[in-house]
Structures are given as C-alpha cells and as structure tokens.
C-alpha cells in the first residue's frame, strides 16, 4: 500500500528520536530587555555581579548601636542622626545610637538593631530598650547572606518569568541573553478548504496549532493550500519550509489517494525519521528531516492533531528554544478503568477535579479522533500504555493541556 505504516515506532521511541533532533537544532541567541524576556529561555548562565546584600543592612526601622554600650548604659544612649537606604553612613561614635530605616547600611561600630516600637526615646534625647535588650547581631541582614558575588543566579535553559525579572533587576541587568524563538510554518491542505468547494470545511487545525505554538514562544506563519493537487502542495511546502526552522503540516499524511504530503516532502529531499507511531489517536504522525530542519506531519482529525502537537511537537519546540525542564505532569487518582489495545499507547482527555487527597481524573466523553469540543472540556491528557492498564482509584500522572498547569 502506498505510504503504508509498516515499521511504525513506539511512543517512547518517537519521543527519543525527536529529542535527538532538538539537541542538534542550531540555537540562535539574542539579547532582549527584561520586559521582553518573559517566557524565553536563558541562553547562558547568569552570575551575580555583587553580593546581596552588598553590605550589612537593617532589617527594620529602628535604632542601631553597639550591644555592649547599650547593655552598660542604664540611661540609654544619645542618638546621632539617621541613616536611610542609599546613604553611606559615617562610623558610629562610641557611646551613641543611630536611627536607621529598613534597608539602610549599618554604620561601622554598630552590631545590633532594635525596632523603633521596642525602644523608648526619653525627653533628654537618649534611647533605650522599652523591655528586654535584643541579642547581639539582631535584625541585621548580613552582607552576602542571600547570595555572594559570582553565585549562579540563572542556569542556562531556565524559562524566565516574573521571579527572574526581579532577580536580574536587583543586580542592575537591563537585558538578558535568551534563545531566539523557533520559526514555524504551519501548512493546512485539502480541497475541502476551498471556499467554493461543494462541501467546504472550515480550517480549525491551523488556528489551534498556531495558538499552541505561539503560547510556547514560537514565531508562526500560516499557509493554506485549498487543493489536493500534488504540484500545488509541493510548491507551497517548499516555500513555507524555506523560511522556517520547523514545518508543521496538518492532514494529507495517511494512505488515501489525496494524501500527498509525504511524497511531496520526500520530493523536496526530506528523509523520514519515523513513519507512524503506535498511539491512538494519532497513528499517522510522521516526522522528516532536511538540513537541520524538521517537518512534523500531523493527522488531519483535530483531536488527533491536538494530541500529537501536545505530546510530540511541543517538546521539540521547547527544547529547540533552550528549555531544559521536564514536562510538568501532575498526579491524580483515576475514577475509571481502561485497558489499552495491545501494542498501542492511548492518550485520553481527562477533566481534573480537586479533592481532599489531591486531584481526581475523569475521562471526558469523546467521539474519537475528530473531536474538538472534548479538549475544551478537558484539563489534561492521560497516557495509558498496554502493559499498564488504568484501574479505579489508581494514581497516575497526567500532562496538563495548559502551559500554566491545571
């Protein structure tokens, strides 16, 4: 049979082959302002240029003094001025206290700070503890206690979010080196996409895949070939792939008479990495390579296309953009039983319900690989392999459909 699925690979084999391709992706580095770095991955390790804090500072508004001097002064110590954050205070004169605000440097000679509300300022201008004297060293943030100069603040591959913006900004960084976004061309094809087709169909896969890829940080360009013509398809694929790092096709990858994507890509010089995966839905998934570029050929059925994109395409995109983190799967107890077909890995859309013990996974009703609405009702994908059937009450791990989790 033309373009048959003989020699399909298992799910884990496909993931390993894809990971190997991602490791060879020619990474591009760019510097961007911190405000534009969210969602990008650090292209290099980032080290602290100074300790934090750079010097001993006060942890609160209060008074700084030498502990021994305060302990020996029955009438308290006179106050010599005030230090605020940003000041470089003179050394503290012997036998004096100094007013300090939160974040202010501790003057040389002081080794204790007490909160203003725990001190009593007498009419003669002397300050003393209202009750017990704090311990020596109290309420002082020591230089470098958070991290020293040279500490690795960000490891290469860290996906940046608001927390890292604060960390970099506190060190005076205004921009950061990140991995440039992967350029993806999404090509949908088929005579049914023509507006004047007798049985015209709306293209739901392209908008879905574009949203999914852009959410992952990729740059996406959409192409449509409203025809089953092999010549028109080949020309469109050549044009799309010439300007992209990754080509994603949807539809035309099975074994029907109008399924011409595989032949067209081979005609452009692409070599097959694998042809078909033993999964359900999504069996037709095919990946090809050509000069360090990769083509992901997804099934045309929306449900199958979505599963293949989440499970196989997104890990490649993230890895190619420097993200070294593992997929953020979540544990939960399944409330249904399911046994996979022999030799086949199943991916089941599930809804997730918060219970006292954590999460409970329920199978979302679906009509099969063409289902679209099931994914709007689902929160995650549950993988079930033939050797590990799901049983009621069993704890399994599910892959969230949203990058932020459930």
UniProtKB/TrEMBL annotation:
Family membership, please give it: Belongs to the MoeA family.
Cofactors, names only: Mg(2+)
Q: Where is the MoaB/Mog domain?
A: 185-319
Checking InterPro entries in the record gives: MoaB/Mog-like_dom_sf (IPR036425), MoaB/Mog_dom (IPR001453), MoeA-like (IPR038987), MoeA_C_domain_IV_sf (IPR036688), MoeA_linker/N (IPR005110), MoeA_linker/N_sf (IPR036135)
Q: Does the keyword Nuclease apply?
A: no
Top-level enzyme category = transferase
Q: NCBIfam families, from UniProt?
A: molyb_syn (TIGR00177)
Q: What is its EC number?
A: 2.10.1.1
* Signal peptide, first to last residue: none
* Pathway(s) per entry: Cofactor biosynthesis; molybdopterin biosynthesis
| Reactions accelerated catalytically | adenylyl-molybdopterin + molybdate = Mo-molybdopterin + AMP + H(+)
Task performed by this protein: Catalyzes the insertion of molybdate into adenylated molybdopterin with the concomitant release of AMP.
Keywords, in A-Z order: Magnesium, Metal-binding, Molybdenum, Molybdenum cofactor biosynthesis, Transferase
Q: What is this protein called?
A: Molybdopterin molybdenumtransferase
